[in-house]
């Protein structure tokens, strides 16, 4: 496994490095302090820049969330999360809707990593999904019920937490307990554009409702001064930046 010398992180913010090239992602990482935020590499950046960039960011001391939202047959997903662990990532995710056998296989694949294993997180219902969109994909129960059902399944399968909207955090916290990690994208400081997100919440409100981690992309990365935007978020949630 890639050795990881990351500093303790004093903030819940995970900056989504949603860029179409490695140079832009590294330029942003250069400005960020790994003790004040974590970073996330998602599908676009990983597709263009791959494991090499992940290793580079981990080598720079960042705790890294590899957000590839695996969803496949159990054997393939188990192998994929193992490959992520080998890169030294701090968190990796799968779609909880991939089902129990898939999630159990993923959790089992990480057991040999012991205390060094990445957090394994299940995506419930994407924060870009509006309630009225669910029926069209065959989900007839209410959106919040679907989130709770998938989160319970994820917990029963040995996952460490879920990705959800902070709007669902209070109910999830009650249902899944204090130790279950709630990772919340769709975070928008007051007045920021929603973009394609639908179930948005401010950073302070998300934490108040029980979120553990705030995934924030465009409000920071597309700001004229990304560092000022990050500092503003940190100030709003009372973290010294
Ligand atoms: O798994 C994720 O990170 C994720 C899940 C989800 O339900 N919604 C969601 O927006 N995300 C990711 O979180 C980031 C949000 O970015 P912004 O909308 O720019 O803040 C993107 O990288 C998304 O891929």
TrEMBL record:
Pathway(s) annotated for this protein in UniProt: Pyrimidine metabolism; UMP biosynthesis via de novo pathway; UMP from orotate: step 2/2
Catalytic residues (UniProt): 69
CDD domains on file: OMP_decarboxylase_like
Catalytic activity: orotidine 5'-phosphate + H(+) = UMP + CO2
A Pfam family it matches: OMPdecase
Binding site for substrate: 18, 40, 67-76, 127, 188, 197, 217-218
E.C. numbers: 4.1.1.23
One Gene Ontology term of the molecular function aspect: orotidine-5'-phosphate decarboxylase activity
Highest taxon of the lineage: Bacteria
Keyword list, A-Z: Decarboxylase, Lyase, Pyrimidine biosynthesis
Domain Orotidine 5'-phosphate decarboxylase: 12-233
UniProt keyword Lyase present: yes
Oligomer status and interactors: Homodimer.
Function of the protein: Catalyzes the decarboxylation of orotidine 5'-monophosphate (OMP) to uridine 5'-monophosphate (UMP).
NCBIfam families: PRK00230.1 (NF001273), PRK13813.1 (NF010386), pyrF (TIGR01740)
Family: Belongs to the OMP decarboxylase family. Type 1 subfamily.
Protein name: Orotidine 5'-phosphate decarboxylase
Organism: Microbulbifer taiwanensis
The encoding gene: pyrF
């Amino acid at each position: 496994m890639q050795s990881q010398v990351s500093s303790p992180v004093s903030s819940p913010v995970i900056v989504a490095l949603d860029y179409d090239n490695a140079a832009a992602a590294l330029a942003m990482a250069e400005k960020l302090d790994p003790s004040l935020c974590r970073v996330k590499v998602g599908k676009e950046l990983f597709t263009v820049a791959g494991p090499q960039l992940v290793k580079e960011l981990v080598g720079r001391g960042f705790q890294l969330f590899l957000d590839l939202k695996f969803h496949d047959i159990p054997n393939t997903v188990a192998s994929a999360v193992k490959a992520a662990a080998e890169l030294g990532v701090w968190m990796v995710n799968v779609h909880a809707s991939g089902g129990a056998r898939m999630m159990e296989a993923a959790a089992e694949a990480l057991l040999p990593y012991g205390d060094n294993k990445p957090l394994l997180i299940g995506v419930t219902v994407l924060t870009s999904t509006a309630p009225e969109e669910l029926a069209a994909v065959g989900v007839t129960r209410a959106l919040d019920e679907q989130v709770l059902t998938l989160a319970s399944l994820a917990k029963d399968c040995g996952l460490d937490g879920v990705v959800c909207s902070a709007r669902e955090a209070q109910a999830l916290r009650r249902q899944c307990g204090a130790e279950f990690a709630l990772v919340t994208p769709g975070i928008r400081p007051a007045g920021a554009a929603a973009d394609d997100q639908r179930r948005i919440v401010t950073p302070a409100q998300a934490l108040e409702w029980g979120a553990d981690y705030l995934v924030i992309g465009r409000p920071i990365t597309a700001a004229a001064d990304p560092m000022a935007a990050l500092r503003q978020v940190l100030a709003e949630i009372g973290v010294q930046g």
